[in-house]
């Protein structure tokens, strides 16, 4: 299949995937989320913010050509804060965390649903243990194509919950910038997606990423529902098992080798 036709078809597949059109996001209007719900959301989503640049950095090291590195580097420069007033995206997210009621330094001790840490492990593996095009499919179509749609839904919920615009700039920045990122990475994909094997690898990475994203949203929804239940019935038990959870501090220790030394195996037990 022609590379542009392949990518056009993949766009349709991404838009319809449950990882992008998840009910947690799509029902923001008919099932409004309170600020307390977004406090839980922010704590679970926080670890993803600090690891996305690492996926790109790992892929950059494994890129097969200077041309491929250039496209990834363009995205990385934005993630580091080039078009965000010099503040990287993690800094913008800290503003959102504070608006949700978290104090600086608390985020490392938040118990994380196993699908949150599982999402990170899956993507570290895709970017270090799989062929380059599988990783590119994960961070390109799997992330940059999907995020504007997902974040538009989240922004509707945040505004309904009463957040001020300056408190949610992380999401508005991504909604705008990731349109550019998607276009840049699509140009890279178009140059590589010229064989059946290459297209299969790109699609595989994309779908593995989106499947992990769907599990992530279910995990965060589980945490939100558990929080709502505890608020109403403090003695009630939760379907979220503490045995399956870890804090970000503990998780970082478990994957430190993989994060520090590209190409090292990500421990499968950290999920």
Description:
This protein is mainly α and 271 residues long. The protein has helices spanning 3-16, 23-26, 35-49, 52-62, 66-79, 89-99, 114-128, 132-144, 147-160, 169-192, 196-232, 248-254, 256-260; strands at 111-112, 246-247. The chain has a two-stranded antiparallel sheet. Helix 3 runs antiparallel to helix 11, helix 4 (52-62) packs antiparallel against helix 8 (132-144) and helix 5 packs antiparallel against helix 10 (169-192). The radius of gyration is 18 Å and the shape is globular.
CATH class: Mainly Alpha
Mean pLDDT: 86
Q: Secondary-structure element order, as H and E?
A: HHHHHHEHHHHHEHH
- Count of DSSP helices? 13
Total tally of structural domains: 1
Cα Rg: 18 Å
State the total count of DSSP E strands.
Answer: 2
- The fourth-level CATH homologous superfamily is Heme oxygenase-like
Structural class from helices and strands?
A: mainly alpha
Write the layout of secondary structure elements.
Layout: H1 3-16, H2 23-26, H3 35-49, H4 52-62, H5 66-79, H6 89-99, E1 111-112, H7 114-128, H8 132-144, H9 147-160, H10 169-192, H11 196-232, E2 246-247, H12 248-254, H13 256-260
Antiparallel strand pairs: 1-2
Helix pairs in contact: 1-11, 3-6, 3-7, 3-11, 4-5, 4-7, 4-8, 5-10, 7-8, 7-11, 8-10, 8-11, 9-10
